[in-house]
Amino acid sequence: MQPKEISKFLSLVLRHQPQLIGIELDAQGWVDVTLLLQQLAAHQKVINKAQLEEVVRTNDKQRFAFNEDKTRIRANQGHSVTVDLGLAPQTPPAILYHGTAEKSLPSILEQGLLPQQRHHVHLSKDKTTAHKVGQRHGKPVILVIDSEKMTKDGFTFYLSENSVWLVATVPTQYIRREE
Ligand code: HQG
After folding, report:
1. What is the pTM (predicted TM-score) of this model?
2. Which residue lies with its CA nearest to atom 28 of ligand 1?
3. How many angstroms separate the first and last alpha carbons of the chain?
């Protein structure tokens, strides 16, 4: 398997469907590395530990992390299954960005940004990332989020290991479309 293919499959099982290969994530999202490799192999996804380490090290968005002694692995964010990543609240920059598709705008401007299948709404500190994220869904639109005002109003922000800003929801009054 190529690194990209491995990364995609790991995202699937470590964020969304561990049961696909008969594993369970613990409460913090971790799974034993030996067990993971064994279960991958049992499901026609044979990779060795060196390949796994390479994927963790070189992944473009640093999607995965090992624990200190590298016996366990988890996804850094993006889960739909219930996990507690144990992230500490952080003060965000004054402005954050969210990339979405133009077709979603009417609904977003009516309901605000909702986490949909994930635990949080994902925001970035740079427009380039937002643009790329939006493109995944269609014609990209960048939304500017008044995270400073949200913080003042009591919203809690978290920063994932791989630098994605996370918040439960973004009501409409904090959202404007980029000019
Ligand atoms: C949209 C990638 C209608 C929201 C990225 C988005 C990110 C609404 C979609 C991470 C809505 C959800 C997450 C509302 C939100 N009405 N549409 N009220 N509220 N939406 O994939 O932020 O490659 O769950 O705008 O880098 O696109 O997976 O979230 O378009 O960090 O590592 O509903 O996924 O990382 O889509 O992406 P997603 P996202 P990875």
Report:
1. 0.89
2. 78
3. 43
Q: What pLDDT shows up at residue 179?
A: 80
What is the token pair recorded at 12?
């699937």
Paired strand residues for 18 = none
Tokens of 154: 């009591």
Q: What is the length of the chain?
A: 179
Residues in Cβ contact with 44 at an 8 Å cutoff, skipping those fewer than 6 apart: none
- Nearest-CA residue for ligand 1 atom 30 is 100
CA 101 to ligand 1 center in whole angstroms: 9
Q: Answer yes or no: CATH 3.20.170.30 is held by domain 92-177.
A: yes
Q: Domain spans of the chain?
A: 3-75, 92-177
Which helix or strand (DSSP H or E) is residue 18 part of? none
How high does pLDDT run on average in the chain? 96
